[in-house]
Amino acid sequence: xxxxxxxxxxxxxxxxxxxxxxxxxxxxxxxxxxxxxxxxxxxxxxxxxxxxxxxxxxxxxxxxxxxxxxxxxxxxxxxxxxxxxxxxxxxxxxxxxxxxxxxxxxxxxxxxxxxxxxxxxxxxxxxxxxxxxxxxxxxxxxxxxxxxxxxxxxxxxxxxxxxxxxxxxxxxxxxxxxxxxxxxxxxxxxxxxxxxxxxxxxxxxxxxxxxxxxxxxxxxxxxxxxxxxxxxxxxxxxxxxxxxxxxxxxxxxxxxxxxxxxxxxxxxxxxxxxxxxxxxxxxxxxxxxxxxxxxxxxxxxxxxxxxxxxxxxxxxxxxxxxxxxxxxxxxxxxxxxxxxxxxxxxxxxxxxxxxxxxxxxxxxxxxxxxxxxxxxxxxxxxxxxxxxxxxxxxxxxxxxxxxxxxxxxxxxxxxxxxxxxxxxxxxxxxxxxxxxxxxxxxxxxxxxxxxxxxxxxxxxxxxxxxxxxxxxxxxxxxxxxxxxxxxxxxxxxxxxxxxxxxxxxxxxxxxxxxxxxxxxxxxxxxxxxxxxxxxxxxxxxxxxxxxxxxxxxxxxxxxxxxxxxxxxxxxxxxxxxxxxxxxxxxxxxxxxxxxxxxxxxxxxxxxxxxxxxxxxxxxx
Length: 620
Fold this sequence. Notes:
The chain has 620 residues and is mainly beta. The protein folds into two domains: 18-525, Methylamine Dehydrogenase, Chain H (7 Propeller), CATH 2.130.10; 530-617, Immunoglobulin-like (Sandwich), CATH 2.60.40. 4% of the residues lie in helices and 47% in strands. The protein has a five-stranded antiparallel β-sheet with strand order 1-20-19-18-16. A five-stranded antiparallel β-sheet has the order 2-15-14-13-12. The longest helix has 14 residues, at 2-15. It is globular and about 70 Å long.
C-alpha cells in the first residue's frame, strides 16, 4: 500500500501543468539597424510554484588529497558500469582568448570538416584537419557593420540543411548601445564571405539592454533568445526586465538580402506584477533538434527566475518549468504562441560558488537552462542547479514527454558528493530514432581537483560513470575575487555526416587562467579500427616495444596526420606527433620511453580521411 501511495503522489507532481496565451506582430531588419514593433505577453502569476527553502546542513570539508584525484568522488545518481564510456579520438586547446573572463565556449563543425570556435571576445576558423586558419576579435569579424560596441556572449551553429554557419553575439551594456549582431556564412567555408545584420537590443526603447543569447534553427528560421536587464547597477545585482525572442528568416540571411524579415516577442513565462522583478539571471532557451532540423514549429524551455537572496544569503528554490511553443512560422496567418507551466518532481535552485583548490572558488551564477534537444517526441534539457541533498553544484536533467499532449515532466539531479559540476551541454549519440542516447558534457572542479571538463552517457534511462575529457592543470585565479567567473555555457555538437563523432568545447584551468579545450569523442569502437583498405597489413613493431616504436602504414593521398596514444580503456595518454605524410607507404618512429608497461592503442587521424588504430605493448 505504501508503494501505491508514493507512486500516485509522483504522478500528480509530474503531470501538473497549465496553459497561458500570447500574440505576435511582425518586423524586419536591414543591414543597418531599424526599429521594429514588438508583442507583449500576459501571464497569471497565481500559477507560479515557490516551495519553502529546504534546510542545507551539509558542510563542504577541505580534503587534503592530490589535485585531480577522482578516486573518492561518488555520484548522487544511479550509474551503471555496463554503459560504455566515450572514447577520445583526440583533443586540442582552442586559440587562447586573453581579453575576457570567463570563456563562453561555443563551436560548430561542418560536414566537410571546417570548424568555427568562439570565446567571449574572439572567433577562430580551423580547416578539416583541425589546423588553425585564422583567429580574430569579434569586433574585427563584424567590422563591416561599423558598430563600435564591444562584442561578447558569442554563439555559433552549423545548419546541416543549408551547409552554412550562423553566428550571434551581443554588443553594448547600456540601453542606448545594446545590439544583437547576426552573421550568416555564404558557404560552408568560414573564410568565404559573411553577411552581417544587427537589430537593437532595446526594442522597448526603455532603460534595458540585452544579455545571454541562445540560438536554434528550424527548417526555415533562426531563433534567438535574449535576457534583458536595466542598465548596469552593481557587479552582483541587476534588475531583470524580461525575456525576448527573435524569430528570423534564415534563407534571406544566407542569401545576403538587404532586408531580413523577423518577428520580435516579449515573452516572460512566470513574470508578473506580484512577483519581484529584481532578480538574478533568468532565460528562455530554444530547443534544438537532435539531428534532422524540425519546423516550422519551435519549442522553448525556461526555469522560473531566482529572486535576490534573503538576509541569511539563501535563495528560494523553485519547482516550475515552462514550455513555450511557436506554432507555425512568422508568415503563417494562424501563427500563435503557447506557454505551459510544468511542476518538477523536486526543487532546483542556485548553487552559489563551488570550491577549487588553494582556497579558491568558482561561481556557478544562476539556475538557467543551458541546453535543450528535441528527440523522439521528447525534450531533454539541462540546467545549472544546487543538489539540495548534498549542497553541491549539480546538473538538473529534465525530460518532457509528449510536449504537444500530456507534457509529462520527469527529472534527475546529476551531482557528486565531492565534485561540483556546471554549465552542461549535450548531443544525441544514438543510431536510430528509438535509441535515446545522449552524451552530456560539463565543467567540473572541487577543493582537490583543478577545474577541467568531463562527460557522462545517458543511455535510454541509465547513466554512465564520469569520463574526464580534459584535466585541469591549475586553479582559475585571474582577479582579486575569491570566487572567479567560471563560464556562461559550454557547447557540444554531433557531426551530422559522421554521426559517430561528437565534438565538445569546455573550460579547464591552466597557469591560473581559463582556457578552452576541444574534444573529439565517439561511442563506436569500430572507428578506432582501420577505415581505409590497403594492399598490405599496417604494422607496429617491435613487439613488445621498449624505447621507441615504429609504425608502417600506407595512405592513398598525401595528408597531415595526427598520432595519438590511448590507454586500453580509451583514456587519452597524449598526442605524440603531428606530421605530413606522403602518398603510399610511410614509416614513422617516436619515443615511448616514458610510458608504463601495459597495452596501449595508437590512433592515426589524417586530414583526408585516413584512420588507423592498433594495439601495441610496452615492456621496458
